[in-house]
Amino acid sequence: MDEDASDIARLEAHIEALRDSIARCRKIALAAKLAVGAGAVWLALTVFGLVPFVTSLVVAAMAAAIGGVVLAGSNSTTWQQTEARLAASEAMRAEMIGRMELRVVGKDSRMLH
């Protein structure tokens, strides 16, 4: 029983780490969208002549837009894989808890399922 409890505790720590990773993926997705948006806006402003053409700023805007797209794609894959691992870990935890013979503490100590 103690071994099962320690396995479940380790699994819960792993689940928490996966949830933290998904939270980081959300932040990275937001940063990627901001980079794409900022780069695209700066390029549009330059094309329409609303800001003067400065080569280094245009190159930086293109790099931000392209880098944001690449980051979003990579992050999306990581996010999907992490969510799949989270779902599998939660299913494993539920199965491990289901195998335990839990009893109600009190007058009536019947089996719980």
Structure, explained:
This protein has 113 residues and is mostly helical. Helix content is 81%, strand content 0%. The protein has helices at 2-47, 55-99. It is rod-shaped, with a radius of gyration of 25 Å. The model has no long low-confidence stretch (mean pLDDT 91).
- How is the main sheet built? none
Number of helices: 2
Report the uncertain regions.
Answer: none
Shape: rod-shaped
Radius of gyration: 25 Å
How many structural domains? 1
How many β strands by DSSP?
0
Could you estimate the helical fraction of the residues in percent?
over 70%
Q: What does the average pLDDT come to?
A: 91
List descriptors.
single chain, 113 residues, mainly alpha, 2 helices, 81% helix, 0% strand, rod-shaped
Describe the structure concisely.
The protein is mostly helical. It is built from two helices and no strands.
Secondary structure layout plus pairing:
Layout: H1 2-47, H2 55-99
Helix pairs in contact: 1-2
